[in-house]
Amino acid sequence: MIRSVLRLLPALALVACSGGASDAPSGDGNAADAGKGAASQTRDSLVVAYQSDIGYLNPVVYETAADSNVLQNITFPLYWPDFDCSIKKSPGWAKSWEWSDDGTVLSMELRDDLSWEDGKPLTADDLAFAYELVSDPAVGSPRTNSVENMTPDGRPKIVDATHIEWHFTHAFDRDTQMAHAGLGAVPKHIFSSADRATLRGNENTNKPLSYGPFRFANWKPNESFVLEPNPNFTGPDEFKPKLNRVIFRIIPEYSTRLIELESGKVDMMEQILVEDADRLREEHPEIRLVRRGWRSMDYVAWNLTNPLFEDVKVRRALAMAMDVDGMIEKLLTSKTGESYGRRSIGTITPALCGVHHNDLEPINQNVEKAKEMLAAAGWKDSDGDGVLDKGGKKFSFTLSTNTGNKRRSSAAVLIQAQLKDVGIEVNLDQAESNTFFQNLRKREYEAALAGWSAALFVDPSSFWQCDKPEQKNEFNFTGYCNAEVDALIEKGLSTPNPKDAAPIWKELQEKIYADQPYAFLFWQDEIVGIHERFENTTIDVLSNFNRLHEWEVPPEKVKYKR
Amino acid sequence: MLKYALRKLLLALPLILGVVTFIFILVELSPGSVADKFFTPETPPEVRQAIIAKYQLDQPSFVRYLAMMKNLLFFDFGRSMAQERPVFEIIFETLPNTVLLSAVTLLVIYPTGIVIGSIQAVRHNTPIDTGLSIASLLLFSMPGFWLALMLQLLIGFYWSGWIEGQVAAGAMSADVAMYLTLPLSGMQDPMLELVGGSRWEVFVDRVKHLILPGVAMGLASAGSTARYMRSALLETIRQDFIRTARAKGLRERTVIVKHAMRNALLPVITLIGLSVPYLVSGAILIETVFAWPGMGRLILNAIYTQDTPLIIACFFVFTVLVVLGNLLADLAYAVVDPRIKYD
């Protein structure tokens, strides 16, 4: 499921970041020298243990969280995002923005003092060029949904050097419109003649030009990459970094990352397991544990094309047979009683507090009632073998999950035991992630324990919309289809003001929860460990490396003095 | 001998062909394709089509197989699908790291194994022999990943942490401590290059980073090499010419080192060439645990992303290395033992 989780990251990163890319001037040494200046005596370096390498550092084709972490710091986004129940925006490259009355035109006034690392001025042309690339099918950009609703040809209209307009085919959610406008610029002077079909492999893609506070320096594939303050940054002074450099060391193995963090050789690590958090808290007071709220959700998908799961009463009974609170307590609660899980009632993260349906009562475990409901649906143990049957067929199915996720395999075992209590036989199966994910997309499974990562603006269409005649909705793993839900999705997506859309999304959550296409299990916090000497660390739901230029270390605590 | 080598190499061609074909079939049979990596829920059908067409995934397997074979004939590995860079470039970046680690591993395996085995043979049936036997069997049967984690914990974490504690307390100078601590993972300290460390510092740093992965990878094989060496030397010691040497009144040291060891080393030397497959398979695990940017991790990532050209190229390189290793073993045999001639 990791892959499907990753697949949702772009949606999230899209908001968190706006990008710029390509070609660094060859003098890596220059910036390194600049970093060694007198000021470096009081500035520290941050060393991060990071799981995977960068892919493509270009806002048009970037893919991984590593890519977006880099891009959001080497660019000066149109707006700086902050998260507080929804994405709040403060001026960036765009000094101001406003919508036309009908909500189809978004006009922006741009700063004129920004420039590329190589000294060329940053212009609206570079921004339009990025959208030209996204619109070109030859590029195969994963961001094509950003330009789908832009007219005439999927790029902003340049009014003059500092004014641009985004024209949309219709009015829709303004946060989404802003996100679609927020991709970032690509230096036209570098990429204008690049072969578009091989843009990912272009020699300049992973030597991106910065127009933000940091620059990308010194990449050693599969080993490390480094961000340094951009010596040619021409933006406002308050955006100048307060760190000397940020080193990402690529360490694929979890236990190695953890022991590096404990030994103090690295300063920061993401995705710490609950059981290790306990120990870190006790033995390493110098490591601050930061919680990133409700970042991902586990669920059991029922394959609705399977006759076993056709009946909504049966699905509700299944949910009633499960003890989700018990799972949270066993799997996501530390020994000291701190819980890192929360019951899920849908695919909208509780972090979006204005939209998440807080009053929806989750189905609680009630074994007796579950048995009654199953009996009412015709499932009885007629041959006395302890397993329910109906028309000579036993209630028995295979619950598959992906390998390599300890939490999920433990949850699967708990579910197996809990369903046995109501007379349902569950066989467990684990498949390698690629295979597992492929089976989900083809709907070739019976029940699957999987997960989604949270998107920070609401678009439930890929999970819940019915298949279209010309194209199967591949990420609708269960084959769910409810005309009322489809209508709500259309209506919600075309409502410009998020406040007006909120009631629609709440109704949607009620309807889907009532239908139980998934047995929704729990949302989890991500735990990030960082050395306490770093202050103003803006780790939030958006990103672990949001606004890296604000991070600092008090002079007396500086560890890396050179 | 040259003729023999050429014949061996020629015979290796069908083997390489077979391996490449087999791997290709395996990749084809596994579900999904590299294109999945580029799809999101929102990717529109025409972009999907463009991506699928770009990697020729809409072509039948045998068409792609033939195209690949034709390219391989000219040593053209093509472009990595996932990275869209020439495969040759990627291998060229990565292979030296693995060769370096392998060289250090061999340095751990053979000198250690030979010394332990020889001591055992010379002190045959003494408590030392028994103790070392137990030790080498223990090493031999120890899972590599566990040994790797234990080394990290004991040497990299506790020992190096203790030394650093001494430095912090002022009980030891940092210059001395530099030679006593070992890093937990990685190939070099990225900070050192950025701050402009001296050549000596960089060299020491690199050697330090090699020790733990090299030991973790080599120690188990050192155990088995010791067993080979022990039995080979024991057999040699019982032979008549050793008795003659002793009867001549030669010093025991000369008898063992000059006469017995030279003969006993024969079977051990052939092992070097045969250890190439282990160096490759062991690398996948050790490189992951120690975050070493080598071929093992490269191939693992290639398999995860189903990057066919890169997978094929990696296995091609591995097969060639194994074949060369075997050939080298054969030739080494002839060099060490003048009685063996290849025609």
Which SSEs are present, and which pair or pack?
The complex is a heterodimer of chains A (562) and B (343).
Chain A lengths: L1 H15 L11 H8 L8 E7 L14 H10 L4 E5 L3 E5 L2 E6 L5 E6 L13 H12 L14 E2 L5 E4 L2 E6 L5 H8 L6 H4 L22 E7 L3 E6 L13 E8 L3 H9 L5 E2 L4 H10 L3 E16 L9 H10 L2 H8 L9 E3 L23 H10 L12 E2 L2 E2 L1 E7 L3 H15 L4 E7 L1 H10 L4 E7 L7 H4 L18 H11 L4 H18 L2 E14 L31
Parallel strand pairs in A: 1-11, 1-12, 17-18, 17-19
Antiparallel strand pairs in A: 2-3, 4-5, 5-8, 6-8, 7-8, 9-10, 10-11, 12-20, 13-19, 13-20, 14-20, 15-16
Helix pairs in contact in A: 1-3, 9-11, 15-16
Chain B lengths: L1 H28 L15 H10 L6 H13 L13 H36 L4 H15 L2 H25 L5 H7 L9 H5 L4 H39 L2 H8 L4 H23 L1 H14 L5 H11 L2 H29 L7
The first-to-last residue Cα distance of chain B is: 6 Å
Indicate the proportion of strand residues of chain A. 15-25%
Give the topology string of chain B: H per helix, E per strand.
Answer: HHHHHHHHHHHHHH
Give the proportion of residues in helices of chain A: 25-40%
Radius of gyration of chain A over all CA atoms, rounded: 25 Å
Q: Total number of β-strand segments of chain A? A: 20
Can you tell me the overall shape of chain A? globular
Mean pLDDT of chain B: 87
- In terms of quaternary structure, the protein is heterodimer
In DSSP terms, counting alpha (H) and pi (I) runs of 4 or more, how many helices of chain B? 14
Question: Roughly how much helix do the residues of chain B carry, as a percent range?
Answer: over 70%
Rg from Cα of chain B? 25 Å
Overall pLDDT score of chain A: 88
Main pleated sheet of chain A: 11 strands, mixed
Number of strands of chain B: 0
- Which stretches of chain B are low in confidence, meaning pLDDT under 50 for 5 or more residues running? none
